[in-house]
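Researcher: Please translate sequence to structure tokens.
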Amino acid sequence: MQSGEIEIGALREEELNDFAKLMSEAFALPYGAARNILLADPYYDLENKRVLRVNGKIVSCLTIVDSECWIGGASVRIAGLAGVATWESERRKGYATRLIEETLALLHERGYALSGLMPYSIEYYRRLGWEVSSTLCRYQLLPCHLPPSLEARNLRRATRADIPSLSALYEAHAKGRALHCLRDARRWQYMLAMVKEAFVYESATGGITGYLFFEFADQEEGYPVLRIVEMNASTVEAELGILGFLTQQERFSSILDRKSTRLNSSHTVISYAVFCLKKK
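Model: Translation complete:
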């Protein structure tokens, strides 16, 4: 049950620390990491950080992510909703739902035709009007299916100077693929700054034909985890090089990517995340 004076609006500059603390609790992040993610956003805009206050205190929050994604042969503006969170002590009182509903009205005013999100609960967001637009798939294979390769020697650390090549590779892969977002130089700069393990595959002729972004994460089910953020290869050689490079990493016994690829002592599981869309 809701009680107290409720106000919904944009985040205020003096509330940044409170916003970061709420994100820290909701997503089990260290406070410093949550604040860094908040401030490092290349499209940081207080108007897109929406909060619900009760008696002047932030209780729920979310972030609007202005995106442009491919649907068929056209790029379409889509409002992503991310970081939906409520203090644990204030949950099940309808605060997040109210904030989402008010945000949807705002998105309508801004002219968005679609909004999308990665749901923690499909049924919860379905009640609010979203519907599943992708399918969760899981594939299992033996670790030996990641072969060593001499092509791994052609990987080197990525730098900002590689952004035009990274962008060209991504665009060639993403164009026309449903819900693949357009990505500008600011987004690449952000990825290079936030993902510490970023590598490119440089061919013998000097062209960049593949890339790999990954990070070492906490243990999962007792296994150290290497989490693949993104990888792409436009040639067989680049693909073999990336797979071979992964076999050379000694700090993990499990692979997990955000789509997700996971390797443990018996098998690899690849899962593609569920994505939900809502019409205007």
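Researcher: Any highlights?
Model: DSSP finds seven helices and 15 strands in the chain.
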